[in-house]
Amino acid sequence: MWRGAISFGLVTIGVRLYAATEEHDYRFHQVHRSDGGRIRYKRVCEECGKEIDYADIVKGYELTDGRVVLLDKDDFDSLPVNSDRAIDVLEFVSADDIDPIHFQKSYYLAPEKTAIRPYVLLRETLEKENRLAVVKITLRQRETLAMVRAREDVLVLHTMLWPDEIRKPNFEFLDQDTEVRPQELKMASSLVRNMSASFKPDEFSDEYQERLGELIEAKAKGAETPKPRREREETGEVVDLMSALEESVQRSGGGKTGTARRSSTSARASKSSGDSSKTGKTGTGSRKSRSGKRSA
């Protein structure tokens, strides 16, 4: 989708940019209930009431006094946008230096055929030094701050928000002096330890999307739609925090709660892992094999 080069020092690495994620949401159209016809929208001017062609549409920025500043394509083309398709490395930082709130979208960086060696060099250097590269890149006519890191055997670019795009929290409770009793802190810490586990994303699933898929499939077949699940009853505000913590620790049973919560998907994960082990293609084995090739 995008083609350019990573530049740091005198080293240039030709790369291509590919989307690393995709949404699994079902996409719906707005349709007329009675006949299923698609609903279409027209570009109508609220002043003259006429339908407007794209060629006659420009962008307008409304000022606080109600006036509108008009900007057309020539205005935007006159802006100093970097168009040399370069990913300029600004600095290398520790992963702990970047708050995840800055991250936007993720992209895979793949090397051009003539740039594989410097690409692998940068990837392995970032792994060895445990560093991230802070870069600037222009995407869709907009300069964006981004971060490049090594993930498995590829480089991943994460676009980032500019500092002024992140809102500061402004909540009333932050001005209150709220004290936590030592017993509560101790019990809460015990609960956290009992529920601690290694994050395995394959053990989790989007239950809403699964149910939505079942609903669509059932309606498509003309079958009876799945019965809706019962909503969890609201228990109201917890009055005795200490009692709630003690009961939570007992229920957690040294981490059993976390296991039970993921049981619906862990079975599928185990089956998938079992199938992979038969063919000798588990994630760990594959990673070790690739690492072995590099070291050789």
Q: What does this entry look like structurally?
A:
Residues 255-261, 263-274 and 276-296 have low confidence and may be disordered. Strands 1-2-6-9-8-7-5 form a seven-stranded mixed β-barrel. Strands 3-4 form a two-stranded antiparallel sheet. It starts with a strand and ends with a helix. The longest helix is centred in the last third of the chain and has 17 residues, at 263-279. Strand 7 and strand 8 (142-151) form a beta hairpin. It has helices spanning 73-77, 116-129, 182-194, 207-221, 241-252, 256-261, 263-279, 283-295; strands at residues 2-8, 11-19, 59-62, 68-71, 86-94, 103-111, 131-139, 142-151, 154-160. The chain contains eight helices and nine strands. It is extended.
